Amino acid sequence: MRALPFLYLATILETTQVIPNNLHLLRPHSGLAGHNVEGIDCLSWRLAVETDNIRSWSTVPEDCESYVGNYMLGKQYREDCQVVADNAYTYAKNLTLGDDGLDIWVFDIDETTLSNLPYYAQPDVAFGAVAYNSTTFSEWEAKGIAPAVPANLDLYKKLVNLGFKIVFLTGRTETYRNTTIENLKNVGYTTWEKLILKSSSDSSTTALVYKSTQRAALEAEGYRILGNMGDQWSDLFGTNVGNRTFKVPDPMYYIS
Amino acid sequence: MRALPFLYLATILETTQVIPNNLHLLRPHSGLAGHNVEGIDCLSWRLAVETDNIRSWSTVPEDCESYVGNYMLGKQYREDCQVVADNAYTYAKNLTLGDDGLDIWVFDIDETTLSNLPYYAQPDVAFGAVAYNSTTFSEWEAKGIAPAVPANLDLYKKLVNLGFKIVFLTGRTETYRNTTIENLKNVGYTTWEKLILKSSSDSSTTALVYKSTQRAALEAEGYRILGNMGDQWSDLFGTNVGNRTFKVPDPMYYIS
């Protein structure tokens, strides 16, 4: 039932507002070379973000706010997530796990296992087109009502059934441990090996360094990281990244 | 004038065939979860390929042949390339180069600086939906008439003007050195520091290992790899990848 706000938003959009058919249409171009003289081609922008060609960006370009909003609330985002999850499962089910319980799958949390879309869809957040507001985001996080990313909840359940141990490795801080545990359990993530949150001593560390350090510690404990999934490249680059990485779409924000 | 086959193809497509307006429209989905029950969502497939979530694939899915063809011959591919090149230039122009001539930019060749689209657009190649045929591809390569990727030729010229030394690092073999030189020069790549091709001893090495080894050798010679651009993740992963990498779109084939 916790997923209601998310479904509600999507339902509203699908029933009361016609999702423009030209969501993905090409903008007018001038001439054969196809260069878009004015404005931003939001599909190209999103691809460049997803492929790590645009880095350290602070907000979604103003011109792309409604594009990103329609993408995130529409079917394409869900289908994009589903294809990543499907490929992750195809990879995972063909592995032979040890019987020592040390084969792990590392999941990031925000925009990977839990979705902050109900927060990001608010007018004053504008799908990331407005500058990040740590106060209002923390208030949202504290509510503990983030819905699951459906494709990855389904993947999680399948991985648990295959015998993987699950490690959640998140940039959320220890302050939100209990809220996060409650939130995860309420939406269906009922079991895990470890939930690793940032301690106060990690506060000034980049996600890339923090997560590399934590993964190195996991491997030092004997765990084998067979899969590693996150919505940020900083979840997947660095050291000890695991045997396979999976990049979940996220055109709303960038974390280094 | 060597670019004519490429332009010709694109012109034919744009003048004699209406590019379907629903090229990027969403396929029918069943229910709110947005999961595409039958068939492949080709946009999701392409995103998953570009983000390295689908690896070691041999051919474009049959269902996506016309999607990939329309994408490659249409404006979106060129715009996607342009946005990557624009971001590469924004990065490059803000660097301060040394006066020792050791600041280099590494470019892959096929589908990065030269385009094999006239070959891939042939019905029996089908934009990669038909299995790779090394014989016919070699025949095409030997002609030395591949057009430039427009956005990256433009980037190349700007990088040369900024003072970068250019290194072409390609999976093409030494057999095609003269053809490749002629081809590069004919389309506008007129100067470079090194053109590194695979020698016979590299023939069984993966691109990832071969290119890492060659980049390590460049750094051992004192070169600083400030930028590294390729259409395959195997151009950009491994060791000695350079200060920044740029992934050029390529949904037609995969090289490990």
From TrEMBL, chains A, B:
Entry-linked CDD domains: HAD_VSP
Any one GO MF annotation of this record: nutrient reservoir activity
Keyword Signal: yes
Coiled-coil region: none
UniProt keyword annotations, A-Z: Glycoprotein, Signal, Storage protein
This protein's record includes keyword Isomerase: no
Function: May function as somatic storage protein during early seedling development.
The family this protein is said to belong to: Belongs to the APS1/VSP family.
Protein name: Acid phosphatase
